[in-house]
């Protein structure tokens, strides 16, 4: 399944979902068995991305595989997934597809970590940061 972008894939197992309201995203993702987040290290912007995609998979209880670059670099099995070297995608996907036990274990870890990342669980932190930004909005920039 892809959400948003449509890939040129044929087959009964591929599903393209045009868009999903944010309030239904976790529900939609929970239909997935494995989430993937491959990023090319050669594309500079990939090193500055956020880890939100992995947090979304995790909040839905979906084990994930991701490239070991940018914001994904410090994440792993504790957060419900694995980092995959560029030349190991087939092997890692195969291990998760065939490994029911591994997939269930990572799914449990993903859900635990993902739920802790939800905005509703961190609203006080966001409010503090926003209040700080507002309080310092008129301060002159440091030279």
What does this structure look like?
This protein has helices spanning 25-29, 52-59, 89-98, 100-117, 119-135, and strands spanning 2-3, 16-17, 35-37, 64-66, 81-83. It is mainly alpha-helical and 143 residues long. It has a domain at 33-132: Glycogen Phosphorylase B (Rossmann fold, 3-Layer(aba) Sandwich), CATH 3.40.50.2000. The strands form two sheets. Strands 3-4-5 form a three-stranded parallel sheet, sandwiched between helices. Strands 1-2 form a two-stranded parallel sheet. α2 crosses α4.
Please summarize what this structure is.
It contains 5 helices and 5 strands; from the N terminus they run ββαβαββααα. The protein has 143 residues and is mostly helical. Strand 3, helix 2 and strand 4 form a beta-alpha-beta unit.
How many β strands by DSSP? 5
Strand content: 5-15%
| Secondary structure category | mainly alpha
CATH class of the domain at 33-132: Alpha Beta
Q: Report Rg.
A: 18 Å
Give the fraction of residues assigned to helices: 40-55%
Give the averaged pLDDT, no decimals: 93
């Amino acid at each position: 399944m892809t959400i948003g972008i449509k890939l040129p894939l044929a087959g009964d197992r591929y599903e393209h979902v045009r868009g999903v309201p944010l309030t239904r995203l976790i529900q939609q993702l929970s239909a997935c068995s494995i989430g993937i987040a491959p990023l090319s290290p050669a594309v500079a912007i990939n090193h500055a991305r956020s880890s939100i995609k992995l947090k979304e998979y995790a909040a839905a209880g979906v084990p994930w595989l991701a490239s070991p670059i940018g914001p994904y670099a410090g994440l792993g099995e504790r957060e419900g997934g694995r980092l995959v070297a560029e030349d190991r995608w087939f092997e890692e996907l195969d291990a998760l597809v065939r490994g029911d036990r591994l997939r269930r274990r990572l799914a449990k870890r993903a859900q635990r970590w993902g739920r802790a990342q939800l905005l509703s669980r961190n609203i006080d932190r966001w409010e503090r940061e926003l209040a700080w930004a507002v309080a310092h909005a008129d301060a002159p920039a440091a030279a």
